[in-house]
C-alpha cells in the first residue's frame, strides 16, 4: 500500500533521456543539458557510458520488428551516450515537447532536435513515451542509489 502511494506521488514527475552518440561526439552535451535545465527539468541522475550492440538491442526491444531496428542498435552502440533521469511536473509529455518530432524535418523551432538532429536516425536525443517506460528505461541504466 505504501509503495502504491509512493508510485502515485511520483507518477508523471520523471522521465528518461539519452544524448545519442553523434551529439556526444560533436560536443553537444553542454548545449543539450543547458536546454533541458532551462526548460525547468532537474537532472536526477546522469552518466557517460557506451552500450554494446546487444545492450542497445535489449533497450530497443519494443522496436525489434521495425525495419530500422538493426541500424538503430548499431547507431546507438557506435559511441558514448549520456543517459539521464529528469524530474519535472508532467515530465514525460513536457520532455517530448522539448525534444520535438522524431524526424528533424518536422521538429518545431526551439526544440532540441530542431537544433541538434542530423537525420531521422541521428536525431540527437531519446525521450521516454510513457511513465511506465520512463521507469523501465531509467532502471536499465541507474540503480536507486544513483538517483538524487
Ligand atoms: N528511427 C529511425 N527510423 C525511423 C524511425 C525511428 O531510425 O523510421 C530511430 C530514431 O533514432 C528514433 C528511434 O528509432 O528516435 C526510436 O523510434 P521512435 O518511433 O520511438 O521515435 P522517438 O520516440 O525517439 O521520437
Determine the number of helices (DSSP H or I, runs of at least 4 residues): 8
What radius of gyration results from the CA coordinates? 15 Å
| Beta-strand residue fraction | 5-15%
- Give me the CATH fold name: Alpha-Beta Plaits
In whole angstroms, how far apart are the ends?
A: 23 Å
List the strand order in the largest sheet.
Answer: 2-3-1-4
Could you say which structural class the secondary elements and strand pairing correspond to? alpha+beta
CATH architecture: 2-Layer Sandwich
In the residues, how many domains can be counted? 1
CATH class: Alpha Beta
Helix content: 40-55%
Find the CATH superfamily: Nucleoside diphosphate kinase-like domain
Tally of extended strands? 4
Secondary-structure element pattern, one letter each? HEHHEHHEHHEH
The largest sheet, given as strand count, sense and whether it forms a barrel, is: 4 strands, antiparallel
Shape verdict: globular
Say which molecules are bound, naming each kind only once.
Answer: uridine-5'-diphosphate
Low-confidence stretches: none
Mean pLDDT: 95
Describe this structure in words.
Belongs to the NDK family. This is Nucleoside diphosphate kinase. It comes from Emticicia oligotrophica (strain DSM 17448 / CIP 109782 / MTCC 6937 / GPTSA100-15). The protein is an alpha+beta fold. The chain has a single domain, classed as 2-Layer Sandwich (Alpha-Beta Plaits). 43% of the residues lie in helices and 14% in strands. The protein contains eight helices and four strands, in the order H-E-H-H-E-H-H-E-H-H-E-H. It has helices spanning 2-10, 21-25, 29-38, 53-59, 69-76, 91-99, 112-116, 131-141; strands at residues 14-19, 42-46, 82-87, 125-127. It has a four-stranded antiparallel β-sheet. Helix 4 packs across helix 5. The chain is globular and about 45 Å long.
